[in-house]
# Entry
Amino acid sequence: MGLRHTPIILPTLAAAPAAPPAGVSSLYARSDGRIYHQAGSGSAQPLLGVSARLTADQVKTGTTASNITGLQIPVQPGTYYLRYLLGYTADTSGAIRLGLNGPTASAAQITVDVYTTADTPPTPHRLDVIAALDTLSTAATGVTTGVALAAIMTARVVFSTAGNVTVRWAASAAASQVTLKAGSYGVCWAAQ
# Structure
């Protein structure tokens, strides 16, 4: 006998309902697009991570930091884990610099690893471990013009307020250009 899949229709709520009594759980969707589970008087926790994906290439020229449009992920107050997998190309006059931007956070640990063309086979280079939002990594070295490269950013952040978290980026030199490739994505999930 095979498994049967029975769809469950969940109500979409703007905020958490009153806590269920002891021994009872509630399952519901919120307007932020996530499914939440709440058991007894405990706080509601998202069940699944939230992700964002770039649908088109984005180009950045110069050292002025800005948010990457399309990689915003909503968060509520609490502890979150984030992981971004980013494909990029850069010109030889510079390289990519990365960080996170978002709502107020009381603690952050962000690691930035990049793959460059300096090694055969390609190996990740740990650029930085960043302890604050809106802080960019140092720049990678060993970049070859037009070659597809990768960057991986992982983070644990304790947000104090709700808002959107996203990747912040810049090129390493005033005249340098970096292209973030379509298909780059991020995923975020709440600590349990």
